[in-house]
Amino acid sequence: MQRNKAASAKPATSANKSRFNLAAGVLLSLSLFALAGCSSSDSNSAESTTTTAAITATVKVGALLDLTGDGKTLGLASQSVLKAGVQSAAAQGVKIELDVRDTGGDPATALKELTSLNEAGVTSVIGPQTSSEAKNILPYADANGIILISQGSTASTLATPSDSLFRMVPTDKVEGVASGDLIANAGPVTLVTAHREDAGNNGLVSTVGTNVAAGGGTVIAGPVYGPEDTDFAAVAQKIADAVATADSGATKAVYLAGYGEVAQILAEASGIESLQNIPFYGGDGSAQSTDLTENATAATFAAGSADGYASPLPVIGDDAQTPPEVLVKADPEPDPLAYGAYDALMILTKVFAKDGASIKGADMRAAFMSAAEGYKGVTGVVTLDATGDRATMPYAYWGICQVDKAFEWKVLGGWVPPAPTEPPTTTTPGTITWDGCTTGGVGADGAAAETP
Q1: Does 450 reside within a domain?
Q2: Cα gap 315→378, rounded to integer Å
Q3: pLDDT at 402 > cutoff 80
Q4: What is the pTM of this model?
Q5: Which of 124, 158, 263, 314 has the fewest Cβ atoms within 10 Å of its own Cβ atom?
Q6: Burial class (CB in 10 A: 0-12, 13-18, 19+), 54
Q7: What's phi and psi for 38, nearest 5 deg?
Q8: What domain range includes position 98?
């Protein structure tokens, strides 16, 4: 993703539902559909790109996507919307040849495929999805004049001015605050962290922990597992062991950041008595993962004892361009991260239309930065910070709900970032809305949240 909750840290119980506004329904409509009232005449919008340079050659654009690994949910969605983007570019007079490479989420494979793309003459690449991949391939991209535009990387450690990496989502400094605000919403909590060892999830855990501690909570470092680890029963037991070290009277919660493998960890956690009725929270890497909804044991635990496993994803808001028909057909249920890949390709299209197909290196970086600023895309109006990363976005909290005996990802609530301050601070909480599930899982009683 590659990139955004507590006296009680169980936001959907009847005792604390009143602490949240009933605005998630509105947020859901914003996160899934750009409002019909969005202007289509914006001079920097997806529908108004005009060709100012003759494009006679086909432009090669690469894509480094995880189509078979733990991040395949986002990878496959990104592949679909990028194919739609090629059609949108053609309608604007720019012929794009898309070269998609499957990295499987593996940093070494990502470097191998980027090297191959470079040899094929590709100078602009959508992806990779994860920060660990981006970290591994960025030196090569810098050295060879290739720009990378990630729709999922969130590690703030990769936020460097003038490098080759752009990101269509905010860094962990934003998403981590969204999670931390929700975890600490109703008061101090003792939080156990557990995560997959990689740059993106390391950053999320750090930011979430800092935010919870700033709210008066206590943070206990739990297990860290590697990408190749498969003993998830041991990971779940280490989480339980860490929870057991918390004060007996403390309100406890777990923040588990990873990818599709979290389904196996939650399935193992479901059999540990001490983890029953402890709320779990996740990151963008596992939000909407089909691995979780297809694992009945994990999904049952997530929707019940774990209070939904609320996990943030950026929201498509009311400043977004109405998606073109070709994009809606490619991805009928809009994924903000995948849509970020589409916006990236459309911004590239704008660059090629203005500056020609041969632009690359520092010139391409400068042109992309200029074209992206204020671009009204299907994810909203783009604002990049000095390092080329999206400055901020609102987030929706996605969680597992049981609906008609099946498990689905549903929007449980949302987070709007605080107003900018001078100097910038991460201690000011954003605005949280919460509704929970309307049937089953979190908020199973269906009671409406009340305004505090």
Answers
A1: no
A2: 11
A3: yes
A4: 0.75
A5: 158
A6: exposed
A7: -60, 140
A8: 59-170+318-381
